[in-house]
Design a protein that fits this description.
InterPro entries: 3Beta_OHSteriod_DH/Estase, NAD(P)-bd_dom_sf, NAD(P)-dependent_oxidoreduct
CATH topology of the domain at 2-165 and 201-228 and 293-307: Rossmann fold
Shape: globular
Pfam family, one: 3Beta_HSD
Bound molecules: NADP nicotinamide-adenine-dinucleotide phosphate
Mean pLDDT: 97
CATH superfamily of the domain at 2-165 and 201-228 and 293-307: NAD(P)-binding Rossmann-like Domain
GO molecular function: aldehyde dehydrogenase (NAD+) activity; oxidoreductase activity, acting on the CH-OH group of donors, NAD or NADP as acceptor
Distance between the termini: 39 Å
Helix content: 40-55%
GO cellular component, one term: cytoplasm
GO biological process, one term: steroid biosynthetic process
Number of helices: 12
Strand content: 15-25%
Length: about 325
Amino acid sequence: MKILVTGGTGFLGQHLTRVLLMAGHTVSMMGRDFSQVLPSLRKEAVPIICDLRDKNAVKQACRDKDAVYHVGALSAAWGKRADFFAINVEGTRAIVEGCREHNVKRLIYVSSPSVVFMGADQRNVTEALPYPRRFVSVYSLTKKLGEDLVNAAASELETVIVRPKAIFGPGDRTLLPQLIAAARRRRLPQIGDGRNLVDLTYVENVARALLLALNTAAAIGKTYTITNDEHILLWEVIRKVLQELLLSTQLRQIPLSVALTAAAMMEARAALTGTEPLLTCYSATILARTQTYDITAAKRDLGYAPSTSVATGIEHTLAALKEQEA
Ligand SMILES: NC(=O)c1ccc[n+]([C@@H]2O[C@H](COP(=O)([O-])OP(=O)(O)OC[C@H]3O[C@@H](n4cnc5c(N)ncnc54)[C@H](OP(=O)(O)O)[C@@H]3O)[C@@H](O)[C@H]2O)c1
């Protein structure tokens, strides 16, 4: 198939592109900055330099494609509200319109389980959980608005929404690297009591789930949460990673309420200075709350099963980080 991957230059986008190429598809990868793209992908995939805010160019990129994976997004804990809307909502609108105009058969939208996160502990959440009345971040809100646009197009094209939870693996520049960087500066406290359970997802498992979503008839019009199907103690894993990197695991503990007050002040200052805060209310909450998911639907309809465990995934991630630093 001829496939467009938006966000092809990013962490998940590159893994997905590789999996699609290996499955024999012709892949165009869209992004703005190709400098971090693996040379093998640059050779095998067709690069499309395009900003998701350029509506006409985005629509044009959908031309002659059988399927589009909309992976690209402003995926961050902090940023300008207007940018989140322009990239995540209007960019998704342009993709949906492009798919319609160019008769793309299937659109697979990468969303996030944060669209149903209420900021409190949540256990074994299924796709049936309704959206909250208040979103924990402008990121979550705009990903939800993206879902609305994709769902609204479901009568005209085959749509599938995939919500991967907390992706980690080689090539990630956010989740573990940011925690490690904070620990190196001795600025990583443990937020909360350290007993919160979370689901992480190894990037390769997400890419394989996305591949399964390409042809499965039962997936049309549906939404799937993807995780590693292992509920883990987040701070135990963080300490294990720090230990492997010979960093201190003695983390000062602060209650979530204290972290939220500090984060609110940092965000207020950041709004004035334009520099990214060390901590946001969203990140503090994500690090302290239990968030586990039930992925029965993905197993049943997509035949999804995580092939790499969290432990093995962490080993691969650490090996890649050590290689990068060597
Ligand atoms: N990482 C996670 O834990 C996680 C969890 C749940 C859901 N997700 C979702 O998964 C997707 C991929 O996330 P990721 O972790 O791979 O993020 P990432 O590494 O930051 O990649 C984001 C991608 O979006 C592209 N992008 C951003 N703004 C753009 C713009 N204005 N125009 C064109 N392209 C733009 C970036 O391209 P350039 O940099 O080249 O512009 C990059 O390819 C996102 O939709 C995110 O919401 C991620």
